[in-house]
Design a protein that fits this description.
This protein is of the alpha/beta class. It is built from five helices and six strands; from the N terminus they run E-E-H-E-H-E-H-E-H-E-H. The protein starts with 13 loop residues before the first strand and ends with a helix.
Length: about 130
Amino acid sequence: ARSMIPINKRHSGIRILMYHSIGGAPEDHKLGIRVPTDNFEQQLKSIKAEGYRSLTVSEILDIPPDAEGVKCIAITFDDGYKDNYMTAAALLKKNNLTATFFITTSYIDGESKRLWANGHKREYMNWKDVAR
């Protein structure tokens, strides 16, 4: 995930974490697009231990500009990789945290045309996964 950067100076207690993919081969992690499963779970535990309230992006945007004492986090995923559904969603549920998934709908039911560092294509969620 990217570092926990405040979205603006007025709300220094609001953080947004952006992920693409969880798990996979170690060589994929060097690309910066995948986070090892155990690292992701540790990050979730840290979020809870630090007292952040997990919100969706929409809920974060609804926080008034003059709110004080806010300590919230939005966890996001881009693209719609299958591991978002298979791995990340299960770990989020286990840790009572929410996330916002930005799905590239043209990729649903498919696989990436690009080969990753390990020579494998990436599988995307299908419509059944998205509906859950």
